[in-house]
Structures are given as structure tokens and as C-alpha cells.
Amino acid sequence: MFKKSLAVAMAVMMTVSLAGCAAGEKIADATGKRSDYDKCKSSYYGTVKLADYDEFEMYSDEVSISDDDVDSEINSVLESDKSYEDTDETDVTDKSIVDISYVGTIKVKKKDFAFDGGTADNQTLDIANSSYIEGFAEGLVGEKVELNLTFPENYTNSTKDADGKELKLAGKKVKFEVTINKIVKEVTPELTDDYVKKNLKDKYGVETADGLKEYFKNQLEISKVGSTNALADYVEKCDVKVDEDGVKKEVDKQLSSFKDTLEQQSMTMDDYLTQYGNGESEADLKKKIKESITNQFKTYAVICAVVEKSGTVLKEERYNKWLKQIAAQSKYEKVDDFINAYEQYYKSYYGQEIDAEDTFTIQCTYLDAMEILIDKGNVKEGTRPEETTTEATTAAEDASVEETTEAEETTAE
Questions:
Q1: pLDDT beyond 70 at 227
Q2: What digits encode the pLDDT tens for the residues 296-308?
Q3: Own/partner long-range contacts of 206-214 (Cβ < 8 Å, ≥24 apart)
Q4: CA 302 → CA 43, 193, 235, 297, 400, distances in Å?
Q5: Is 277 exposed, middle or buried (0-12, 13-18, 19+ CB in 10 A)?
Q6: pTM of structure
Q7: What's the DSSP call for residue 111?
Q8: Is 299 helix (H, G, I), strand (E, B) or coil?
Q9: H/E/C letters for each residue in 2-29?
Q10: Which long-range CB contacts under 8 A does 27-35 form with residues at least 24 apart?
Q11: Three-state DSSP class for 87?
Q12: Maximum pairwise Cα distance, the chain
């Protein structure tokens, strides 16, 4: 676990160093406008002369999004919003969906003991697709109300007895007294303009069924093209001169942050390099970090320049709309609650603080840039030749939204 935590911290330092700044290091001026965020400007990273947009090369299979692909995304959204309606059915079959309440007990000192997590009310259970222990769902067919079962040997949950002593449930006999409240049926909403406007406008920023389909088509395009070397190859074709002083500052900041992480683990840099450095010196490590950050500067300079060329830097309205959408998709009604949760998640998982608004600003700029490049780029027939991952590819991936999305999902669960 200790070694894993260090590896994670090092991975963060090497890959997402520019996606956030330390707490308190704000990068907006007094106006607070997104357009005033330095990290939205190519000049923050250096100077850029963009290659022609037809040098941004995609392949036909990368931008060919089928109706089935879009329908799959939409069906997932509708499925996640399904509800249940009462029925007049009274006989429980192996195809029923039931609303149940139950009390589970085990024997402790020869007496029935209601264990932690063994009691619940108004739980919806699909008999054919149950995650309950073996025999529970099947035992309800025919409306049985008492089930005598045994926890699996690999069951990981435990409980506290009356004296506060921990008891493992694995292998123990258990009795459930079940009340079948009703038999229900699953209702998946129909995709209509009214449904989208009422339920999905905040999440996806659209008000019609066609608008939702277009939204997912665009997202799938960005995801598919973004997972290739298209952006990294385009960056290499641009004339980018990075701000060496800025790179040095970031390198020093990341090394300092990593040393702080080591100190929390009661280690020095020498200790780390001796145990996990594979013969590397601190100078070798610093060189590797510099190479990574230099490539990130190049990539971020290009995506900012692409958005600037369209006539503006990232607009505040666009940013706020996008941030509201990802907060809603992560089941947060308030953007501030989502940002706080993300920052807490990041600190607990990576051991480092991050300014989430800064991170999302970079990623929203990436989305804007990719939309422009995909729209104006050159599509070749066929399939992209097999690629090898490069530092530039990694930097391009770091700018994408997918890493944050994973974290958001974890936070929201």
C-alpha cells in the first residue's frame, strides 16, 4: 500500500501537474473572468504558430459515429432514470420485480441478533437480476416470508455485537423475515422533447431529443479522436517555443510537492530513489519531469491558441454551462458542492491539493479546441496506422476531460 501510494503520487506529478495549482494560488485577476485566466492563454506556455488545420489528421473510422453508438449512450441515460409502477399482480415469479422490507438476524450467544445492514424497508428487487446472497431472491418466489440461508465463505461484511465486538458474517447462518409489499414493473422514460427539456437540460445543455443525439455524437467524436495520436501529431507540426522559465517553475513546484509527500511517509528523496528509483538519481528524475512538463506546455499552448484563433479565449458563459453539466451528470445540484467534493476526492486519492476550477478550465478549453479541430481538420479514409505512445501523446491525454470524468464518477458514487 505504501509503495502504491508513492507510485500514484509520482504518476500525478508526471502527468497532471499543469491541470491544477496549489490551494490559494489563484490564476484569475480581480475580475474573476474566465477570459482573464492566464492558463487559458497560449502566451502562458510560450509562443505558438499553428499549423494549418488540415494538418490535424483524422481517419474515417474515428469520426464515423453510428446511430447505434448514439442510441447506446441515450439508452444508458434513460435506463439510469427508470422508475417503478405498482401492478395488480399477487404471485411472485422468477421474473417478478418486488418491493420488499426485511429483517436479518444471526445467532449470537444462542439469541437472535439483528446485524448491521441486515434490515431495510421498501427495497426494489429484481428476482432475475439480484445481487443479494445466494438463495435470497430465489426464495421469494411463491411469496415465502422466512428465509434460512448461509452467508458465503468469501463474504466480506462484518457486524458489531452488543458489546461492540466485531463479528465476521462469512459462513454464518442467517434468517431473513421478509415482507413483500407489492409487485412492481419497471418503467423506462421515452425520449421526447418534453422529457429532455424537463429532465436533461441542466445535465447536457440541450432541450430537444435531436439536440441530445447531437450532443452525444459530438462527445463520441471527441472521445474517439482524443484517444488517438491526432492531437499529439498536430502539436508536433506546430511551431511552439515553450516558456523555459515557466517550465522550470513547474518542475520545481512538482519536485517540492513530491518531497512533501515523501516527508508525510517519513521518507527522503534518497530513500525513495534507493528503494523505487531503479538506479535513477534525483537529476535523472528532474530531467524526466522536465520532459513531461515541456510536452504539456506545448500541448496546452496549442489548444489555447486554437481557441484564441476562433476569436476568443474560453468564454465565461461556456465554462459555467459546461461545469454545470458535469456537476449535474455527477448528481450534484450545486456546482460549489461538486467542486468541493472533487477537491476532497483528489486530495484523499492522490495526496495532493488541487484547484478544481483551474483543472476544469483547462479541460473545457481542450473540449473547445477539439471541437474546432475536428470540424476543420482533414479526414483520411481508412484506419489510423498502429501508434506508439509518446510523451506528446500523454500530454494530450492529460488535457482531456476523460480523467476528470472518472474521478467525478467515483466521487458521485
A1: yes
A2: 999 999 999 998 8
A3: 212/74, 212/77, 213/70, 213/74
A4: 10, 38, 6, 9, 13
A5: middle
A6: 0.69
A7: E
A8: helix
A9: HHHHHHHHHHHHHHCCCCCCCCCCCCCC
A10: 27/358, 33/316, 34/313, 34/314, 34/315, 34/316, 34/319, 34/361, 35/312, 35/313, 35/314, 35/315, 35/316
A11: coil
A12: 80
Give yes or no for a contact between 20 and 360, defined as CB atoms under 8 angstroms apart: no
Cβ atoms of residues 127 and 98 within 8 Å:
yes
Quote the cell numbers at residue 257. 510537492
Residue 293 in grid coordinates: 512538463
Which residues on adjacent β-strands are paired with residue 99? 124, 182
Spatial CA neighbour of 327 closest among 360, 358, 301: 360
Instruction: Return the residue matching grid coordinates 534518497.
Output: 270
Burial class (CB in 10 A: 0-12, 13-18, 19+), 7: exposed
- What's the DSSP call for residue 47? E
Q: How many residues can be counted in the chain?
A: 413
Average pLDDT value for residue range 126-140 = 93
